[in-house]
Write a structure and sequence with these properties.
single chain; 5 helices
């Protein structure tokens, strides 16, 4: 694994690495949902999503999810172009930002 990965963590017996990967994805998705909710609340308060997420990135809310999925998908509404072109735009999970924003 060291040939193709820079960070390798031994998690235990057979299958534990898969569990860690699933849990990592779960936490990432939860963070993106929180960013979508924050962007929707911010918009309703008159704060541009780019301004809000830019401010959050300077504080303790900064994260991989904010810098990548928030700034690159939620702010521009790009979920991403390749997924939309393939007809899978509704399946790319940061699109939750649209669902949250439309909820009243």
């Amino acid at each position: 694994m060291a040939c193709f990965a820079s960070d390798v963590t031994h998690c235990g017996g057979v299958g534990t690495g898969q569990v860690v990967t699933i849990l990592n994805d779960m936490v990432l998705i939860e963070n993106v949902v929180a960013l979508a909710e924050a962007a929707a609340i911010g918009r309703r308060a008159g704060i541009d999503a780019a301004t809000l997420l830019g401010a959050l990135s300077k504080g303790s809310a900064d994260s991989f999810a904010l810098r990548n999925h928030g700034m690159k998908a939620i702010v521009p509404g790009d979920f991403p172009e390749r997924a939309v072109a393939r007809g899978d735009g509704d399946r790319y999970w940061p699109v939750i930002a649209r669902v949250v924003d439309e909820a009243e």
